[in-house]
Design a protein that fits this description.
The complex is a heterodimer of chains A (867) and B (450).
Chain A: E1 10-11, E2 45-49, E3 53-55, E4 61-62, E5 64-68, E6 74-76, E7 83-87, E8 93-96, E9 99-102, E10 106-114, E11 117-125, H1 133-143, H2 170-183, H3 195-200, H4 217-227, E12 238-244, E13 247-250, E14 256-258, E15 260-265, E16 270-272, E17 278-281, E18 287-289, E19 294-297, E20 301-309, E21 312-320, H5 337-349, H6 359-371, H7 377-385, H8 391-400, H9 403-416, H10 421-441, H11 446-455, E22 458-459, H12 468-471, H13 475-486, H14 506-513, E23 519-524, E24 540-545, E25 552-554, E26 559-561, H15 583-592, H16 596-611, H17 631-643, H18 648-656, E27 687-688, H19 691-702, H20 733-737, H21 757-765, H22 767-774, H23 779-785, H24 790-802, H25 808-820, H26 828-836, H27 841-859, H28 861-864, E28 865-866
Parallel strand pairs in A: 3-11, 13-21
Antiparallel strand pairs in A: 1-2, 2-5, 4-9, 5-6, 7-10, 8-9, 10-11, 12-15, 14-19, 15-16, 17-20, 18-19, 20-21, 22-24, 23-24, 25-26, 27-28
Helix pairs in contact in A: 1-4, 5-17, 8-18, 9-10, 11-15, 13-14, 16-17, 16-18, 19-22, 21-22, 23-27, 24-27
Chain B: H1 4-13, H2 17-21, E1 42-48, H3 66-69, E2 74-76, E3 83-85, H4 89-93, E4 98-104, H5 111-120, H6 141-147, E5 158-161, E6 166-167, E7 169-170, E8 186-187, H7 210-227, H8 229-232, H9 234-251, H10 254-259, H11 266-272, H12 276-290, E9 294-298, E10 304-305, E11 308-311, H13 317-342, E12 349-355, E13 358-359, E14 373-374, E15 378-384, E16 392-393, E17 395-396, E18 403-405, H14 410-420, E19 428-430, E20 436-438
The chains are: A alpha+beta (867), B alpha/beta (450).
Chain lengths: 867, 450
């Protein structure tokens, strides 16, 4: 994974290193016991990061010495007791405390020697450029956290001082620090007395506490700047930020490694800015980064670090490996190229893929993700008993052709594009839902229908895809939605300031929003009950484009800007197509044609539907600091999607027939110190089933559906399954409790699977469950009068609720419920009910036993978990 | 209703014992910053929707001209030199136990956005009269408290009732929003003043007695054991914990007893006032007693006015206050404080009384007898929980129109609540976009506390 220039690599002699002991010369690191450390043996290579080193008085260069195995696993040996490091010409620079210290200007070589092996690295030593406000001072403010959003870096500032977020706007900050309020924050006569220094170092009361010590470099630099008369000087512009290494697989047992951040400036200079960058791990706990780039983890983990320095960003991924299992791929079968991608990553990460799930588990899983319901007892038994080796693809094909598949995807897309009744009107919501179902049913190219969706105009009743511009009502929400839903990127932050955690600039945000500035909406027959509520539109709406050139006010630049696609280093670039058609058609083509981010996002969204977890996860948060867990897998899927002409069903078939989809679900590692199998799809991710699926599962298990769902009484739609609701009904108690989204956000996260006490009460004692169990002519009613053994009745309940047969123990438990029950009707109401149901005492007892069993099945964890 | 026989069966279920261990006394459980000692264990948050007039209640302006002063006389209270409205005699006699913040202000003139502001301490993005309730908006105070508290088994951390606030659309700020459903309030709309007040989901149906429930529970255990999901998945464990809690609530006494107002002395019930608000406040005390950390009582579901529901007195301001709003308030709120004090709960329970804004100084809205919306200056009342009684923080100007000193925003009220509970107001939470956001951007008004 890590790529070193070959000239820096030599082979270590066999006898050289047998034991590596880390003696921590740096006080900030803990000593790690020898037993925990790996041995460096034959075939390991010596390496050094970074590849190029330049040291100056102000920015001494750090480096790290690594040893790399043939498998590409790396150990940092910078603290090896026998390691010798020196600069050939000590008049140029010297190695002191693991870094190069400037002596005089010139170049030389750094020699790394371990016993009789050595490595030479060219170095340069340079004078510093003059002290620059927009480099030195801005980096002090960022490093000290002064300009974070929670401190001074927000719209209102704090305690009367306001800075730009994370040093985004040095000019603005200069004014605040050095000029505002008659220069009250600096004291040119007595620089030590400057408020800036006294507040920052905690000498006077500061709500933000002490940010740096008086003997720190932060303090010294600020002081130096004030002593020089607080000039507004400019540094050579930053052109790139690099982290070395870009990625690293750290050998099992090792919990420490190092990263080095270098800034490249327009004048060609390179500076080690590790000390000045903000380095943030993607996992908030269990990992620490020291000031000079040492990473220490508590357990094996796959963690990315993002570094920000001035306007630059860089990221790096470290995998701290776990010990290899003996037979990593013992259970692996490759059914598709995608399985090979997963297997090769498992080998790289020492992860053992789980064996295939049994037929019972598999068929339930397959039905839940494709048609949103549990298989009937017959469907389950038919699949399990089928001896055809091709029964999986056969069943997959049947389910992909089932209309319920269209409903599943129509619900998913309706969630994302905010198809809700208030803005859409119940009729409009149903029409849009129906249109999406048609696209899914006919398996139209997703490129084609998504392009039509974002670019359609006209009546939303006559031409439902125009509804995209009805559910999104201004240029900002429309462009935010397009970016998040169709590209998987979140640009919202860039509305007010350049995105603090991502590459997006305000130029991207307003450029994208400008596409939608000429969209006009005219309501036909709009009669909202509440005239004050401008979010309610009851009739049709006509979408049209005004005859003027689209442009939008860019607050950062204080001018109007024309449409512009997202254009950054993220490879979202113009695809070179000539502008053709309306502005929306131009947008639709850019969005969907030759746009690698579109392909990756759609492939990832499809994967997410079937695994409940994206390869990039959350699926709508692509950014360099949230990389795909398996980049090659995602690239393969995106390519496959494109090769299959953006066919949902074809890509679905590949995924559903893979070995990965058929794996057993995850088992938590007993010592919690292992990488999570399911993140790499070496196990099937376990999760809750969606609210609608759960409610329908209760109905199916009880064989008892409502005449019509609450909220649809007055409509023309006899909705009986929750999966078939086109919009969001106003009455949605059970569904709301279990996380059905209101469709007011474009985020996948609006559908929550969090657990709550309300949910437990709803399943244990809620109206929906109670009524369905008690309904006289439900499944239980039918079973009570059926002339079959009680055991078979229990089996049917297990099949209908859990898609499996009861174990012997469970069957005995169920039978004992019947036998131990001395139930008799207790009061007049119960007697009346028994008479009404024409039941005998035996039937009464049996009914109550079956009710208890069904209740228990629906309250078992297995029922509401998809595994 | 719980009979003696049933109580014995509860013992048999082996669940009831869990309660006693988590009663008040060891249930602080806040994960605050070290060095942030809590002043209070619980909060009772009384919210008066519609916007109570500050000039006609606590921040009276007897020297102001006719068109501002209003009809009500300012009479002396239990604090020398601090007058109170003549229609709040009981509260006036107890005023030395309250702190008043008379300089609260913000810039939201419509009920829904102002209400959201008052329930969360977060300024809404727009002053939209029908501000939409999305997961981008901030959580209710109680939800944030739930996020930072160790749950007490058998009782929810946050309980809210007996109305859903709405003005045309549901007002945002009444749930956990982006903090997630586990921080939602346990919420109900049933009227505690109704003779048959009970919560159906907390009551077993007639044909399910505790024996049958226990039988079902055993079966669930049997099925769960078969696939060992609870050992294998954190998700299943979470479900199991909450299911246990639900079953505990159903089969044991704690929460259900707290909700059973029939167990309360008739004289106490009468003292609180036989109104929805009165019995709701009584319930608040019972809930705090049972270990609930945050109780929100909504005065009314709508903004009201016109002689009904809430405090939006655009018309007949004085008649409405005199005949309906103030008598009900004066009956209930002082009783709550006395009751908390006599049970030794007041010291640990912070009580807040406020609305979403005050009312305009100039009389003459609509029918010429009303007062309009006034977010520019209003009063928030606090008692208990370490509050220094008798404190007046902040002054309004001569007309009660704008803060004259120590202006305070809803942000600061939020920070004060969190600080009082030992939660760092600058603590961060993560929203749906992954952004770290502080729970409050305000500063706690520490001068209100001893």
């Amino acid at each position: 994974m890590i790529d070193f220039p070959p000239r820096f690599a030599i082979r270590l002699h066999r006898s050289l290193v047998t034991h590596v002991v880390f003696l921590c010369a740096l006080g900030c690191l803990e000593t790690v016991s020898v037993a925990d450390e790996p041995q460096v043996t034959e075939g390991w290579q010596l390496r050094v990061i970074p590849a190029h080193m330049a040291t100056t008085p102000r920015y001494p260069a750090h480096f790290s010495v690594l040893s790399k195995s043939e498998r590409g696993e790396v150990v940092d040996i910078s603290h090896h007791p026998e390691l010798q490091v020196r600069v050939h010409d000590p008049n140029i620079a010297q190695v002191i405390g693991g870094k190069l210290e400037y002596r005089s200007t010139g170049s030389s070589e750094l020699e790394i020697r371990l016993k009789d092996s050595s490595l030479l690295i060219p170095i340069s030593s340079e004078e510093d450029a003059p002290f620059a406000y927009d480099r030195e001072i801005t980096s002090v403010l960022t490093r000290s956290g002064c300009n974070l959003g929670t401190c001074h870096g927000n719209l209102h500032g704090k305690g009367g001082m306001r800075l730009s977020l994370r040093g985004d706007d040095p000019e603005f900050d200069f004014y605040r620090l050095a000029r505002e309020f008659s220069q009250r924050r600096i004291d040119l006569w007595e620089p030590h007395e400057s408020l800036l220094l006294k507040k920052g170092s905690g000498q006077v009361a500061h709500q933000g506490g002490k940010r740096f010590e008086t003997d720190s470099m932060e303090y010294q630099w600020l002081l130096e700047w004030i002593q020089q008369g607080s000039p507004s000087t400019h540094a050579s512009p930053l052109v790139a930020l690099d982290i070395s290494p870009k990625s690293l697989r750290v050998a099992p047992g090792t919990r420490k490694s190092r990263l080095i951040v270098q800034a490249k400036f327009a004048d060609g200079s390179i500076r080690d800015v590790t000390r000045w960058a903000r380095i943030e791990p993607s996992i908030p706990s269990g990992v620490q980064v020291s000031e000079d780039g040492w990473i220490q983890t508590e357990k094996p983990m796959d963690v990315s670090f993002s570094a920000t320095y001035l306007s630059g960003r860089a990221s790096s991924r470290f995998v701290f490996l776990q010990e290899a299992a003996l037979e990593t791929l013992a259970h692996s079968t490759v059914r598709h190229p995608l399985d090979a991608k997963i297997d090769s990553q498992c080998v790289e990460l020492n992860i053992t893929p789980l064996p295939p799930a049994d037929d019972w588990t598999f068929i339930r899983r397959l039905y839940l993700v494709t048609v949103g319901r549990m298989p009937t007892p017959n469907e389950t038994l038919t699949f399990v008993e089928d001896r055809d080796p091709d029964k999986v693809p056969k069943t997959v094909d049947r389910l992909l052709a089932d209309p319920a598949f269209d409903f599943v995807w129509a619900m998913r897309w309706s969630d994302l594009i905010r198809n809700e009744d208030k803005v859409m009107s119940p009729k409009g919501a149903a029409l849009l839902h129906g249109w999406i179902r048609q696209q899914i049913a006919s398996d139209r190219s997703m490129q084609s229908w998504i392009s039509e969706l974002v670019s359609s105009v006209g009546s939303t009743y006559d031409h439902p895809p125009a509804s995209y511009h009805r559910t999104h009502r201004d240029p900002f929400t429309t462009s935010e939605s397009a970016a998040q839903v169709f590209l998987g990127v979140r640009i919202q932050c860039a509305k007010c300031h350049n995105h603090p955690f991502d590459v997006w600039k305000q130029d991207d945000y307003y450029g994208l929003a400008a596409y939608f500035t000429t969209v006009e909406r005219k309501q036909i027959d709009n009669k909202p009950k509440d005239e004050l509520d401008k979010h309610i539109i009851t009739g049709d709406e006509i979408i049209s484009l005004a005859d003027r050139s689209p442009e939008i006010q860019h607050p950062g630049r204080s001018k109007r800007v024309p449409p512009r696609p997202l254009a950054t280093s993220n490879a979202l670039i113009e695809n070179g197509l000539a502008p053709e058609g309306t502005i929306l058609e131009q947008f639709g083509r850019w969005l969907t044609h030759d746009n690698p981010q579109f392909d990756a996002n759609i492939a990832n969204r499809i994967w997410y539907q079937y695994f409940g977890r994206g390869i990039v996860d959350p699926p709508d948060d692509f950014r360099d600091s949230n990389p795909p867990t398996n980049p090659e897998l995602l690239a393969w899927l995106a390519r496959e999607l494109r090769n299959q002409d953006y066919s949902l069903k074809k890509l679905s078939r590949v995924i559903l027939c893979s070995a990965a989809f058929a794996r057993q679900s995850g088992v938590e590692s007993p010592d919690a110190s292992a990488l999570d199998n399911a993140s790499y799809f070496a196990a099937y991710p376990m999760r809750r089933i969606a609210a609608e699926v759960l409610l329908d599962a209760v109905s199916d298990a009880c064989e008892s559906f409502p005449q019509v769902h609450p909220g649809y009484e007055e409509g023309s739609l006899p909705i009986r399954r929750a999966m078939e609701m086109p919009g969001v009904p106003s009455k949605k108690g059970f569904l709301k409790t279990f996380g059905k989204p209101d469709r007011l956000l474009v985020c996948e996260c609006e559908r929550t699977s969090q657990v709550s006490l309300g949910q437990s009460l709803a399943l244990v004692n809620g109206k929906e469950v109670r009524e369905r169990i008690a309904q006289p002519n439900n499944r239980i009613g039918r079973l009570v009068t059926a002339d079959i053994p009680f055991e078979d009745k229990v089996r049917e309940l297990f099949l209908s609720a859990l898609s499996r047969l009861p174990s012997d123990r469970e069957l005995q438990g169920a039978v004992s419920v019947l036998n131990s029950s001395q139930d008799r009707p207790k009061n007049l109401d119960e007697i009346a009910l028994a008479i009404q149901q024409q039941t005998t005492i035996d039937q009464y007892r049996e009914r109550r036993a079956l009710e208890d069993i069904l209740w228990a099945l629906m309250n078992s964890k297995e029922f509401s978990i998809l595994r | 209703m719980l009979t003696r026989r049933k109580s014995l069966q509860i013992g048999g279920l082996g669940l009831a014992g869990l309660w006693s261990a988590y009663r008040l006394g060891n249930a602080w459980g806040v994960e605050g910053k070290p060095g942030l000692p809590p002043k209070a264990k619980s909060v009772i948050f009384l919210h008066q929707y519609g916007g109570p007039s500050h000039i006609d209640t606590f921040d009276m302006k007897p020297q102001a001209p006719d068109g501002i002063r209003g009809e009500f006389k300012a009479v002396s209270s239990s604090i020398a030199g601090v007058p109170v409205c003549e229609h709040l005699p009981r509260w006036g006699a107890q005023l030395h136990q309250w702190a008043q913040v008379r300089s609260v202000h913000h810039d939201m003139k419509n009920h829904n956005p102002a209400c959201y502001y008052s329930l969360t301490g977060k300024r809404p993005p727009t002053d939209d009269i029908r501000l939409r309730d999305t997961l981008e908006l901030y959580p209710a105070y109680g939800s944030t408290v739930a996020k930072f508290s160790k749950p007490v088994p058998g009782v929810p951390t946050f309980v809210a009732y007996p109305h859903v606030l709405r003005d045309g659309a549901i007002s945002p700020g009444q749930h956990a929003s982006f903090l997630g459903k586990q921080c939602d309030p346990y919420f109900f709309q049933a009227d505690p003043n109704a003779p048959d007040f009970s919560l159906p989901e907390l009551q077993l149906p007639a044909d399910i007695d505790l024996n049958r429930l226990e039988r079902r529970r055993e079966l669930v255990k049997l099925i769960d054991e078969d696939r060992r999901l609870i050992e294998r998945s954190a998700e299943a464990r979470g479900l199991d914990t909450l299911q246990e809690q639900a079953l505990q609530i159903l089969s044991s006494t704690g929460l259900r007893d707290a909700l059973d107002l029939g167990r309360e002395d008739t004289t106490v019930r009468d003292a609180y006032g036989r109104t929805t608000y009165g019995q709701s406040c009584l319930l608040a005390r019972r809930l705090v007693e049972s270990g609930v950390r945050f109780v929100t009582v909504y005065f009314s579901q709508g903004i009201g006015g016109n002689g009904s529901e809430g405090w939006d007195t655009h018309q007949e301001n004085f008649k409405d206050l005199r005949e309906r709003l103030l008598p009900a308030t004066d009956r209930t709120v002082p009783t709550l404080i006395d009751d908390l004090e006599s049970r030794g709960l007041l010291e640990d329970t912070l009580v807040l009384w406020m609305g979403e804004f005050g009312r305009g100084p100039q009389i003459g809205d609509r029918d010429g007898k009303g007062r309009g919306h006034w977010p520019d200056c209003y009063t928030v009342m606090m008692a208990g929980g370490g509050i220094q009684g008798g404190t007046i923080f902040g002054q309004s100007d001569a007309k009660g129109a704008y803060p004259a000193s120590d202006p305070v925003g809803p942000e600061d009220i939020a920070a004060t609540i969190y600080w009082a509970l030992g939660i760092d107001p600058a603590a961060e939470v993560i929203d749906t976009q992954g952004r770290p956001l502080p729970i409050s951007t305000g500063a706690p008004i520490q001068k209100l506390f001893r």
